[in-house]
Amino acid sequence: MSYSSQALREQARKALHLQSHRTVTVLSSLLAVQDELGYVPTEAIEEVASFTDSTINDVWGVASFYTNFRFAAPGLHNLEVCWGPTCHLLGAPRILQEAQHSLGLSGEGETEDKRFTLRYNTCLGACSQGPVINIDHRLIGQVTVERIRRILTELNGSPRS
Amino acid sequence: MATYAELKAKADERWQTLAHGDRAWVRVGTAICGKAAGASLVVESLKAELSRRGVQAHLSEVGCLGLCYAEPIVDILKPGKPRVFFKNVTPDQVPELVESYLIHDNPKNDSVLGYLGEGSLDGVSPLDQLSTMKKQIRIALRNAGHIDPLDIYQYIANGGYAGLNKALFELKPQQVAEEVTKSGLRGRGGAAFPTGTKWSFLARTPGTTKYMLCNCEEGDPGAYNDKGILESDPHTLIEGMIIGGYATESNYGYIFIRHGHEGPIERTEKALEQAYEAGLLGQNILGSGFSFDIEVSLTGDSYVSGEETALMESIEGKRAMPRYRPPFPAQSGLWGKPSNINNVKTLAYVPEIITRGGDWFAGIGVGRSKGTVILCLSGNITYPGMYEIPMGMTLRQVLEDVGGGVPNGKKLKLLQTGGPLGGVLSGDKIDIALDFEQMAQAGAILGSGGIIVADEDTCAVDMARVLVAFCQFESCGKCFPCRLGMTHLLEVLERISNCQTRPGDMELMQGIGRSMTLGSLCGHGQLGFNPVQSAFRYFAEDFEAHMKKGRCLTGQCTGLHITPTRTRP
Predict the structure, then answer these.
(1) Is B538 exposed, middle or buried (0-12, 13-18, 19+ CB in 10 A)?
(2) Do A68 and B301 touch (CB under 8 A)?
(3) All domains of chain B, ordered by start, with CATH?
(4) Interface predicted TM-score (ipTM) of this complex, two decimals
């Protein structure tokens, strides 16, 4: 999906006004925008600045600090691979290598066809089930090289939504 | 407004229907580890199968029993039968489980983990007699895996909010803080500062707006007990926080959670809503005249935002960078107002301490370390899980008796305790007791309770490299000795790991470590050299093999260095 600049602004504004927490800040606004759009486009940075009465500089400062913020539209499927020490011990390097190989990537980022985004995660929080991956908000534990290959193949065959 | 007695009566009635009614009660653990093992699919499958077979049963999603090795766990309480726990249930097994146990009465004992309550099953031990359970004393985790975290009445039926009721109507704020002091409770976020004393600092600070903050940032890899409590029993935290608010005479609380941890966030928010509806939060709680509000504050991905002053910056919506101290939070914290900050686990103990008294809690544990510690065992261990262990037990007992030791006949090489900054502990140093002082003497920290177990196939250089990579990635960048030092340390460790050492590398790292320790504002930089120092102290031979002989003794340093490096702009 891609939106025009104006549509992005409107969506961002909607997300900003719909924030449910009582305390509204630059950070809470950025999180709300990212939840709505999947990333934080430049238009949204400007909207957050005017909504929170901050400078664009301040908003960029916050957005660039927290590593979960993304500034380009994500791929259709979002794959996060944990590289925390537990997952590392239990085989995460081979899982990451396989993910990169299957997706034709050499690091974090989007595949050329925009079907997948690969990200590293410092700890997905399910250490007892390591190695752990998170695919489209679904945690999967005890991942093996074969299993991640199968999951990616299945997703690659799924129709675009 | 309902009184506590009215709430309790309603709760008891509902509990009676659930636990002693004429329908079966099916519970599935869907906390984070359960979900990673596929519990959500098991719930879907159960729903479909129960409806297809026309079985009348209550189905609840509960939190975490802590027995991660047996997830997904389905437990079934049938009228007149003991409560039976089925282990490692897959969605495909659900139709058979429904057929054999819910419709007929055959539990197929080889798929049973244990049972609770009256009765017996051939060849199956009671759940509380399992090696992983029998040494535990569950206080903060007393309800975890037993009640539906989204039902406040199940919490109240099991004694919930009795502590708050007692505090509000029988004790003065100062007496509450004294009771907590008497219990010997010390902060479970890592610093081990006496909680009652900390509360009294805030209570003594004058001011009309004061904040009670709860830290559930929990960025430490290997620890998931804070999230585990929020997913399993959010009301124990909420109750503890309200009691803390009363003791410190503050009126507003924030529960600080990392964005993206959907389970803990959703369950906490729902629990807060229910507490407001029941009159346990908001204006004039239970008619006592005391008012307290709590909201969830979400942070972005940043490990340092778990540091207490950085956390306040983050709640204010800024970059999570630590502040200078003094002024300390009790004088000038969130938005410049007096504030108190506690870890989830610390506050989760408070309701029971108030209900049962400080002396009761102080009777558990050893020396100056009272009560229990919630440990998360992961890595090369037979029974990974979340266990609540009385202080004073030795690490060896925890690893061998509870955790079942290192699997596949391998030998234990090292432990990584208390988060990446805690560094590593040699596997032959595990005869120390779980005690803040003893752990510190041995050069390890209990920290947040994460224990990562590594077997003999682990290379200490590789472990140090991964820990430093984490610290480098997570440096907030405010203090340059940390920001640049971590990057430089990682560079050198990658060289050593690849057997491309240069002369003087060790001395270089020690110099960097000194600068970081002296020149950083918070623990991240001050302790950031720990992973390297401790790994070198215990496993010098691993380093020497890389540096002098050009090889990795375990073959683990494969050059597969897939770790992100970045410096915060």
Answers:
(1) buried
(2) yes
(3) 20-129 (3.40.30.10), 161-362 (3.40.50.11540), 365-455 (3.10.20.600), 460-548 (1.20.1440.230)
(4) 0.95
